[in-house]
Amino acid sequence: MVTALCFITVEPRHVNDVGSEIARIPQVRTVYSVTGQLDIVAIIEVSDVEAVATVVTDGISAIAGVSTTETHIAFRTYRPEDLGAGFSLGY
């Protein structure tokens, strides 16, 4: 299993629509709207690296309102039980 983090910038008025569209992609496990230079972070889980390219290029990048993507492949998860906690600020 390959896990990738896709950092996405979006035209400001499209953040909610883009986030909802990304969440409908079957290989996307979680979608977060975030503060800072990025607008959205999507966690992708697929069988191989080639599938990451397909999800990002044919899926995420093709959504109207997406300006840029930057994708990082995860090497390992150190504490899987804490993975979601880092993204759940305020809850």
What labels describe this entry?
4-stranded antiparallel β-sheet, alpha+beta, Alpha-Beta Plaits
Molecular structure report:
- The protein starts with a strand and ends in an 18-residue tail after the last strand.
- The protein is globular.
- Helix content is 23%, strand content 33%.
- It has one domain (2-77): 2-Layer Sandwich (Alpha-Beta Plaits).
- The chain has helices at residues 15-23, 49-60, and strands at residues 2-10, 28-33, 40-46, 66-73.
- With 91 residues, the chain is α+β, with helices and mostly antiparallel strands.
- The protein has a 4-stranded antiparallel beta sheet with strand order 2-3-1-4, with helices on one face.
- A hairpin with a 6-residue loop joins β2 (28-33) and β3.
Please give the structural blueprint.
Elements: E1 2-10, H1 15-23, E2 28-33, E3 40-46, H2 49-60, E4 66-73
Antiparallel strand pairs: 1-3, 1-4, 2-3
What is the structure about, briefly put?
This protein is of the alpha+beta class.
